[in-house]
Amino acid sequence: MQSYILLFISIVLVNNFILAKFLGLCPFIGVSKSRHQAVGMGFAVIFVMTMASAVAWVIHHYLLAPTPHNIFYQWLGEGKTPADFDFTFMQTIVFILVIATLVQLVEMFLMKAIPPLYESLGIYLPLITTNCAVLGVALLNVSDFGMLRNASESFAKTVLQGFGGGVGFLLVIFLMSGVRERLEHMDLPRALRGAPIAFICAGLMALAFMGFAGLGH
Amino acid sequence: MGACVRREFVKGIFRENPVLVLMLGLCPTLAISVSVKNAIGMGAAATFVLVASNAIIALAGRFFPSKIRIPCFIVVIATFVTMVEMVMGAYLPALNAALGIFIPLIVVNCIILGRAEAFAAHHGVLPSILDGLGMGMGFGLTLLMVAFIREVLGSGKFWGITISQVYSSTGAVHPAAVMVMAPGAFFVIAFIMGFIAWRRERQLEQKRAAAIALMSETRV
Predict the structure, then answer these.
(1) In this prediction, does ipTM exceed 0.85?
(2) CB of A197 within 8 Å of any CB in chain B?
(3) In chain B, where are the structural domains located?
(4) Closest approach of chain A CAs to the CA of B67, in angstroms?
(5) Cβ within 8 Å of B, A 11-30
(6) pLDDT tens readout for residues B77-107
């Protein structure tokens, strides 16, 4: 249990996706101009990152990785070892296609089933396909937890990392949108208006978040 | 022809610089730029993928059904990224380890998909290759600039060789480690963007002043 809590804290605060790992910067700069939009984007990212982590784990575990559970091994594996069925080189191409399809499906499902949620998250969903945080978390999950013996532990940690990454994204983009709403009314040097001052603020936030560095241990 | 070739090539480096003007591909720019070596590796990998995918999409793009053209582009791009991943893993394992997940993440680099959609899909093969080359160079040079500033200020090195004794023989000036950590990346890119905005502002002002001077002269 303790390791799960530590993992969650570490992924939200210490190894924050935006400020420490530099994943998902485009929406972070692009959509953080108003607080309302930032929160919408944040929740959409939590949703997609959690689902993408889970689906990517299933694909990796049952189709790509050389595990005894590999479907191809169970189907064609007479007299062979799981290592003969190592398709991990297909990881990048399979994951990005799965994520793109998943985002499309989620969008269609929300449009039909929960229109109010679609109204608030819908416009952000297509943008998320090319958000590197989503593909990034799927790839990180494989390198962090793909090798764990215990499949259920590996799956739980994967989903938790996806969810925590999304929560960290929401936290930082929300803080940033508050800062940027204030910046609108400031008397800034004209050359720094817009993106440059946003990056300076992001740098200061990253500096502050480095203070959490001791928490993970 | 020559002028056209030059225009397609040069626009990516200056006027439409993907990182500093179009604000695409920020994630690798900030994450990779800890050292000049990494920057060159990343720039070369992205340029290769950009040129190759632009060429293929310019050739075959018209056969993709328009509704699913984006997934088709992504498959083309991901194929080349996988090739880069394998080649780099086999021949440059140290660089591959340093760049980490940012090599597979070239797939979602907005520059590449953006050029496929905005340029290669409705231009010829040669202009698309040149566009890819120019954009890749623009990306690589920006990376190089950020990486140079960060490596020199942050770890006091250039290309892995310590040079901080050149500017501080007594050791009075220490490299500021914050520059190679996350905040430094944000500060460097912010000041480069600010500098570009300041220069553009000044050029506009000079043009305006020249126009006003011309107008008053003609009136006299």
Answers:
(1) no
(2) yes
(3) 2-202
(4) 13
(5) 19-26, 29-30
(6) 999 999 999 999 899 998 888 888 888 888 8
